[in-house]
Amino acid sequence: MVQGNKIRIMVVDDSALARSLIIKGLSAHPRMEIVGFAINTLDAKRKIPQLRPDVVTMDVEMPGQSGIDFLKEYLPSHPIPVILVSSLNLKVFDALSAGAVDFVRKPEPQDNKDAFITALAQKILIASMSRVRTHPAARPAVNSAARPAGGAAAGLAGVLAGGAAKALGPSPALNHVIIGLGASTGGTEATLEVMKRLPADIPAMVIVQHMPKGFTQMYAERLNRLCKMEVREAKSGDELRRGLALVAPADLQCRIVRIGDKYTISCMPGEKVSGHRPSVDAMFQSISEVVRCKTVGIIMTGMGQDGAAGLLAMRQKGAYTIGQDKESCVVYGMPMVAHDIGAVCVQASCENIANVLLRHLQTL
Q: Which phi and psi angles does 20 have, rounded to 5°?
């Protein structure tokens, strides 16, 4: 974690144009210092020990070893926060899986370069305070119990953190449950960790993940391939139903709408809420205001406080609420604020949130 001093940054990109843009843009930031650059991952391996950067920005696709392979090889023994600077490419999610903290979309010639630098600088600030995850193959298995928000242990005896989820079955009550999940930095992989442990007949889900425009559809498709339930990017008018998880599209506010005894989703342009569009708060608040059936709110890793107030509103209306614990968060910000204001019923590790959710659903 970097505190007080300037954040030391190393830029890794084979494009001289991209390097120049990033170095010039970040050098003007009062909190940042460019300590050097590398033209490929081999160059980066030589220079990182000498330059000792606090954060590395890295292109995903470069000649020779890719950024993905570099992360898999280097991070387990040399944990350092890496922000990806990527074109609109599905491989960015493989790089996040390998341990990168976050990513920004590399600008096209017609894009606003100042907006790109602003977004990159914000993510570097967050990355400097993050917990670096290593590649899954290098991490020991985790099997932590759920903890009530007050801190005492709550037993989940006999349930393995990585176990395959059995179908919930035809319980009519579960046809009338809505689950909202919100995450930011570190959330692409944390949300996958939860979703892949859930059965195909999970109650209706809505997911808000802070992500650059263009990537939410690819992210939804990735979840759909890797998880048992159907997952797709939401569009206005989609009906919430059991077995379907909808991912809020980037740059649109996503809210739940009640029509009679059915619930649909609204994805519309609008002002940012809690600094974001889509906003976890906007989604959670809509659940608290319009949903008349049983609800669950889950808040996961991310900087800031988006989602905390909305989760509290849900809990005050009777929702069951789960917060990711500090130890498993890349950034313990959003879940911490939610916990501190009393919005969280129970805390659990990323690997165990699915178990906590399923145990609760079995009581309905």
A: -60, -45
Q: Does the annotation mark 135 as catalytic?
A: no
The residue annotated as part of the active site, out of 54, 59, 201, 306, is: 306
For tokens 């808000």, the residue is 208
Helix ranges, the chain (H)? 16-27, 41-51, 67-74, 91-97, 113-127, 187-195, 216-226, 280-290, 308-316, 334-340, 353-361
pTM of the model: 0.88
Q: What tokens were used for 11? A: 């830029």
Question: Quick check: 266 and 294 in contact, CB under 8 A?
Answer: no
Q: Based on the residue annotation, tell me whether 210 is a catalytic residue of this protein.
A: yes
d(CA 357, CA 3) in angstroms, rounded, equals 36
- Looking at this protein, which amino acid is placed at residue 315? R
Mean local confidence (pLDDT), 165-194: 93
Please pick, among 97, 184, 279, 349, the residue that the annotation labels catalytic.
Answer: 184
Cβ–Cβ < 8 Å for 279, 250: no
Q: What is the pLDDT of residues 47-90, one digit of tens each?
A: 999 999 999 999 988 888 888 889 998 888 888 999 999 876 77
pLDDT digits (tens, 9 = 90+) for 304-334: 999 999 999 999 999 999 999 999 999 999 9
Task: Report the distance separating Cα 62 and Cα 247, nearest Å.
Answer: 30
Starting at the edge strand that comes first in sequence, how are the strands of the sheet with 204-209 ordered? 147-148, 346-348, 320-324, 294-299, 177-183, 204-209, 244-247, 230-233
Alpha-carbon span 302 to 48, nearest angstrom: 27
Under 8 Å between Cβ of 19 and 11:
yes
Is 78 one of the catalytic residues? no
147-148/346-348 β-pairing = antiparallel
Which residues, in sequence order, are CB contacts of 152 under 8 Å at separation 6+? none
pLDDT in tens, 88-114: 677 888 888 888 999 998 888 878 899
Asked whether the beta carbons of 180 and 298 are under 8 A apart, the reply is yes
